[in-house]
Amino acid sequence: MNKTVEQARSLVAELLPGMQAVGSVEQVICPPFPALTALANMLSGTEIGLGAQNMHWEAQGAYTGEVSPAMVKEFCQYVIIGHSERRAYFGETDAIVNKKVKAALAIGLVPIVCVGETLSENESGKTSEVVMRQIIQGLEGIPADQAEKIVIAYEPVWAIGTGRAATASGANAVIAETIRIPMAALFGAPLAQNTRVLYGGSVNGANAEEFFGQPDIDGALVGGASLKAEFIKIVEAAGKK
User: For residue 142, what is the domain's CATH number?
Assistant: First the structure.
């Protein structure tokens, strides 16, 4: 929940030349809802995608304050689903995530599905249990030909906005063992290996290249560092992978 529409325009105008200079990297901007129209116009004709930060799973109806899949699809190609803040502050469960993922796929959006453990879960050794549950329950009932379109983002909650990033090797191990393994059980090993898995949690221009150097980390879901010019350094680091 950052940037007014005018501030979002200014930020994207600042970032766009540097982002476009790295043509080998798939890049997506996910602003708050009010800025979607303005940024859709700015990004028209570029290779940079646009995504929403959330959506409801119902097509329409008496859900005041919510935004439907069709409303998102009008401007976007992507949508973030199950972000840790949605889970923590708004009570989103794995069952709700599952409904949203299915709704996104049904309308042709690429869901960026977030999974990750809290600090207490991490410290009590429950990382594998929590992340595997989020994958299995969040993707339940999705056919393989749809699942191949999904992007997964591993975001340990304790590392988001804290400056305390997971180690690159630690994040890679979680992705390999607790995301790709259950994905393989659900959809087969080839799909699990081809699924794009991002890391999110205090990624910045200084540490991005180390994360991208890991074999199972395919990119980043960037928070605070995406609000400033430093984001271009992360894009450039991804271009070296």
Answer: 3.20.20.70
